[in-house]
Amino acid sequence: MKEYIFEAEMEVRDYECDIEGIVNNANYMHYIEHTRHLFLRSRGVSFADMHNKGIDAVVARVNMQYKVPLRCDDVFISKLNLEKEGIRYVFYQDIYRKHDNQLCFRAKVELVCLVNGKLGNSPEYDSVLL
User: Fold this and answer.
1) β pairing state of 75-85 and 88-97
2) Average pLDDT, stretch 78-88?
3) Which terminus of the chain is less hemmed in, N or C, by CB atoms within 10 Å?
């Protein structure tokens, strides 16, 4: 994989942990989604503005690998890279625990665009993402 093109620092909140004291698996989806949103904002993309233009980026497929659990108050760095494969935007996302740089989570997230409700390419997204 190429170098990461974006990263965001976050912290585990106590309510994200389960009875075992580790981050509940579903919260990793929130972390990586929030990272993608921050990345898009850093590129000047607003989901609301794109929606108003009839362009919606939607998740089509996610492959996740849980490596080492995060725990309450852990600070972590969520990193991403991006490639375009046909009409799909493929985000490669990794989460590292900050204090020891341990890989905790890895995901491949494929997004597609619906343009006026139909699957298609988005020159608007291409111009800011690629």
Assistant:
1) antiparallel
2) 96
3) N
Residue type, 41: R
- Please tell me the distance from the alpha carbon of residue 79 to that of residue 89, in angstroms, as a whole number: 16
Q: Are 30 and 10 in contact (CB under 8 A)?
A: no
SS (H, E, C) the chain: CCCCCEEEEEECCHHHECCCCEECHHHHHHHHHHHHHHHHHHCCCCHHHHHHCCEEEEEEEEEEEECCCCECCCEEEEEEEEEEECCEEEEEEEEEECCCCEEEEEEEEEEEEEECCEEECCHHHHHHHC
pLDDT band at residue 128, thresholds of 50, 70 and 90?
A: confident
